[in-house]
Write a structure and sequence with these properties.
The complex is a heterodimer of chains A (1129) and B (305).
Chain A: H1 3-16, H2 21-38, H3 47-64, H4 73-91, H5 105-114, H6 124-136, H7 142-159, E1 164-167, H8 169-178, E2 198-200, E3 205-209, H9 211-214, E4 224-231, H10 246-266, E5 270-276, E6 284-290, E7 307-314, H11 347-372, H12 376-389, H13 403-413, H14 431-444, E8 452-454, E9 469-471, E10 476-477, H15 484-502, H16 509-514, H17 520-523, E11 526-531, H18 532-537, H19 548-561, E12 565-571, E13 578-579, E14 591-598, E15 607-612, H20 616-626, E16 631-634, E17 640-645, H21 655-668, H22 670-675, E18 677-679, H23 697-712, E19 720-725, E20 750-756, H24 766-787, E21 791-797, E22 808-814, E23 819-825, H25 828-838, H26 844-877, H27 881-894, H28 903-915, H29 926-939, E24 947-949, H30 959-975, E25 986-988, H31 1004-1024, E26 1043-1046, H32 1064-1071, H33 1081-1093, E27 1097-1101, E28 1108-1113
Parallel strand pairs in A: 4-7, 8-9, 20-23, 24-25
Antiparallel strand pairs in A: 1-2, 3-4, 5-6, 5-13, 6-7, 9-10, 11-14, 11-18, 12-14, 15-17, 16-17, 19-20, 21-22, 22-23, 26-28, 27-28
Helix pairs in contact in A: 2-3, 3-30, 4-5, 11-13, 12-13, 12-14, 14-15, 19-21, 25-26, 27-28, 27-29, 28-29, 29-31
Chain B: E1 12-13, E2 16-23, E3 33-41, E4 54-60, H1 66-76, E5 82-87, E6 138-144, H2 147-163, H3 182-191, H4 196-226, H5 244-265, H6 271-303
Antiparallel strand pairs in B: 1-2, 2-3, 3-4, 4-6, 5-6
Classes of the chains: A alpha+beta (1129), B alpha+beta (305).
Chain lengths: 1129, 305
Amino acid sequence: MAPSNAKRRKLEHVSSGEDDDDSFAGFSGSEEDSSESAQPSVNAESVGQDFAQGLGMDDGGIDENPAEEPESTVHLEQAVARASREEQAIVNGAAKTAQPKQMPMANKISYSRSYESGPSKSGIFKLQMDDMLERVRPRQGKREAAAEAALHRLKQTIEQIAPRPAQSVEDAERALLKEKIVIPFPDPRPSKDVLYKLEYAKPANITVVGSHVLKVTSAVRRLLQIDMVVQMPSHLLQSKDYLNYRFFYKRAYYLACVAAALSGAHGDEYSVSYSSMHDNVLLPVIQVRPTGKTSSVADKPAKAPAWQIDIALSAADDVFSAEKLGMSKNCVRKNDEQVKAHDSPTPLYNSSLRTCMLMNAYLVLQHKAASSCAAYRDACLMGSLWLESKRLGSSISRGGFGNFEWGVIVALLLRGGGPNGKALLGPGYSSYQLFKATLQLLALQDLRKKPLVVGEAKSFTESSEWPVVWDAERSHNILYKMTDWSYQALQSTAKRTLAALGDQHFDAFDSTFTTPVSSRLLDHDCLIELAHAALAKSATTKRERSSPLLSDLYAVLRRGLGDRVDEVDLHVPSTPDWNIGVARPPPSTGSVTVGLRVDPEHAHRLVDHGPSADNKAEAAAFRAFWGDKAKLRRFRDGSILESLVWATEEAGQSVVEQVCRYLLGKHFGARVEGSARFVGDECIPLLWKANGIAPFQPLMEAYKQLETDIRGLEALPLSIRQIMSADAQLRFASIEAPSITHGIKQAAPAAVTLQFEGSSRWPDDLVAVQRTKLAFLLKLGELMNDNVEAVQSRMGLENQGEDVSNQGFLDITYDNGAAFRLRIHHEREQGMLERQMKLKELDPKTKQTSALALASYKRDFVKGSAHTQAIAQLATRFPGFTGTVRLIKKWFASHLLSNHIPDEIMELCVARSFTQPDPWSVPSSTQNGFLRTLAWLAKWNWREEPLIVDMSGSGELKDVGYQAIGTRFEAWRKLDPALNRVVLFAASHVDHDGTTWTDGQPSKVVAGRMTALAGAAMQAVEAQSIDLDPASLFVSPLEDYDFVLHLSAAAFGSRKKSKETGFKNLKVQNTADTSLVGFQPAEDFLTELQTLYGAAIVFFCGGAERKVIAGLWSPLTAPRAWKVNLRVF
Amino acid sequence: MVPTKSPAVATSVNDFTVLPLRVPGLPSYPKDTTHHLYLRANAPKAPTADTPREVFLVNVPIDATDVHLRSLFANQLGGARVESVAFEGARVGKGITAPVAPARKKRKRGQEDGESAAPAEVGLLPETWDRETHCSGGTAIVTFVDKPSAESGLREARRAVKSGKTITWGEVIDGKVPALGLARYAAHHKRRHPSHHALQESIDAYMTTFAAQEAARAKALARQRAEPDEDGFITVVRGGRSDLAREDAVRLKEEELKKRQEKMIGEGFYKFQHRERKKKESQALVGQFEMDRRRVEEMRKRRGG
């Protein structure tokens, strides 16, 4: 790049401000040049060396560029200054319509700065967001046109309905029954002797409300839903109608009349049915859908109707006084009871009525917000996508918080809600800021204890036990449909999303907006399924709430489980729509699902302490709640407490299950308890000795012993710098916990590295270094044998023929069975190998062996031990981690992939689901961790995404680290676009290389199979959900392979072959035979097969987990037709 | 996918004779299989004096040893006597390298140039396998005692093919070579844990030789440094004061000096530093933006939007 050239371009950019795309093309062009120049030099023979150079060049390429154009500094400064002035304006969305391609450079800078977390975070989130909004923004299409045409026709029909004179309830019902229409009276239906009359008159007005008319629904939804509101004329209602369901009865009659007219006029074009608005039984609505060929059943998504019009009825907003419908007022009076004060408040009833009165008011509110705040619509769109992906919705079965609530809350916050009645959000906020601020409100303020009040709250004084967002101007609680548990679920979801958005390094976009939270099995640690019918029979309700039964269930479980669970969530099936010839939906046959999020620290506690016996009142309450289970006990510290004792978990039921079952039986009867199905850690029995890190403790103690023993040796020629472990067994991560009981020798010795203090007396020759290491090991072995009790040591050789690699190790076996494999780490090896690779005169073969030796040096001595430490820390930090790792490894082994996918990669995958749990919380049970890891494996796009895990938990991996890893990843992909060498790229805070474990290891075929298998497993999870048998995920058919070798048990070092010796004492000697430590013929066999036939066959093996080796012929070896070698010149 | 045997196997391909060998079944797979060995007179690009008495084999069975091949020619193909067998060395990459001269059993020992063969003989680590195996489809060169034997060997092979005589692979070598299977791995396990004494001896021998070699080399280099050559120049050679450890120390020192220099000046001392920093920042931002944009576009493409 000539300086003059650069100057010219810069000048252009300052003058025009538009044409500078060229200069950036120049930028990227030069980058590509540097990488391309590296590309041709790659060939199969000497990839290692060339590649290292290629990386170096690429690293430099980006840094060097900025230094090339010193002249343009001033201009650039101006541009930046201008950018910062413009920043706010652009954030506000003024520049949003501009296509990124024509964006002036100033905007580019500000664009990337506008992301509020500072320059370190990339602007990719914002770009992605804008891109997504562009795609989901509502547009006028075919189905919209069809739906709107239908709207017009429906409106006409409704306007032309003839009025019906006032009739008694009975007459009205009879008249409508002639037309085969039933009035959808809410429960309880009006008694026969009521005096008031039902009447129909022409509606006051007909409007379309809701998200469609506000243009805040996402266009990619499967179903276009439009809300149409028919306002009942006020003269049909009397001032006392707000009491005792009278309004709802009149409304139901009016609705039935509309339904009659609609089904009469459009019965053949549209299907007309009743449905409850947001599952609220008080508010039936008419649902109109096109009758295609389908029967409008939602279980056939391919043929599901494209649109749906909900016709709701409203009343004028002044027919009833708002004060009388306050949250603490009672509006359902009992006749026999004269004392009003004893009536409990009926907030759901009141709010439902208010909803009918306020439909138009909220439309106006949202409209105003949309016109005053440019980003309002986008914020609503983002909210709706977020809610959709988290499976939240307005209907009670989905939590009672949906698009409407989101939109109204944002609109309210634009007008108030802050301190001193000021607005919490400003009209100048960007859509992302609106979105995030609203999330913050949901996540951080407990709306149950501290309700959010917007506007002058005259009528609002009380706090309640349910969440409240009080709109004072319209005196309405926006969250009236929410329950305790659904609010808690919403809050924790919002918290998790906020945490993910706050994470500087990971792209939270997909998990926030696009990835649906799929199966409940993944979401919760435990699921309890209860038959709805059984539960309904055991009703013992007092409170007026959307679902009194569930409240009781929730309260009982919440109290009973205490700190064993973090969260209890209830899921109910939603009410289906029903025929207009029937008054009420068919009784629900579905089941209630209780989801528990377990706190692993407390979940397994066997004894619960209640109140002290002296505290009479509390003790009595405790006894009342727990019944016979509560026992008075005296504890060691002398206290006498009410307490509960649960059976140990080995008996088959986890403590949580016992508690739940007991409580269900006690409070809801044996039928409910009998109908309950409990799904918890079904995976646990798949592992032998699965209780956390405990099974590994004997080996860890032996390791400590080894360390003290070695450090205690005095006659060593060099002092010891450090002893490090580098083995899956020493990081709580091997499938089988090492068994070192009864003196049986551990089959696979655990790798340990030993580093001496530096000395100048090491030779300067690689081969000699390896021999010197052997000499040290010999000396060490001698000393161990002489000085330490109960230990045997033995030299072993490895890497025969590659004399620059490590040549030997020392197996140290304790008499109790623990076995270790000691290797010496000499820190100068790396430098010597690197130097050797740089030598120009070296032949390619030696270069390759040096490259291999270097890779294995880094793996075994540097990265291996660091990785081991990091994983061991994770295992102690997260109780479910060890089990998850072991289960995942077992899964890979069962599918015969464990000889391809290195252990460390599996561990990193699991570590990822624990350190970046988004969109879930940190898994607290083995099964959960396992399924989530599988879910991630299934959607991991390893071609384009590196796996980066910061296992430190304290953010040890800094921005620079992330950038370096990203650059490396891109460089690898550029140099090896066909993924012949590196397929999976996995880096961690202790390993920035990313290819330490995966250089040449899993091929593309194998990685693809891994993804496919994980995908199949996830499909099974989705399909079977609660009926899933986890063991079935571990079954892999052998039909896919071309041939299968079944190995005998002897090949796995099984000790059963000594059975021919008839003498007991001989047998014992045999099992204690140290010479068999590390004897793994199956592994040796597989390695040999791979070297002999690796060019033509891919072998699959699952180690001791599955005693087979399967083979797949490479497609290149397929029989080919004989071709005549003709060439035309 | 399984490369099943085509019904009619050609008896010869180009100038190779295709000799079918019967591989007897095993208890775990009791079926006979047929292996095809390809033979022809060796015809390398650069013939040597031995070429006429050599036969070139392709697709050598993986378990072939010189015992196998000797017995094949001596007992089953007319009794030609084999002098030696050279198997193809390790494969490099995907291509097949031409067979090399008889594989040296002795490993090469680092310092290749100018090293006499004498020290290479000592200090070898014990062999860990009792028998070598060869890559599937590998080649070998069989050297016969004389040219007529080689010719008779080939002729007999051709005749055997024509007459359809069944030749069983490894029929008469029972017990002459170590067994394969579990026994092989058991033996390997035993061999890779050599006795303390043997290992110590080997390492001692190696280290002594190595020390002697180092001393000799140092001496030679010192001499080179001291003596001018015939033109009167003194060759610059490695060694002397700049050994490896010293180089590291020098580098460290350099870095330290550089750091000190930077510290002395400080970061925001000159105006141009400030300016350059700002420029770098904004450029990084723009670069980042471009990169992000590209990534998002790629993502969109992937989604097919």
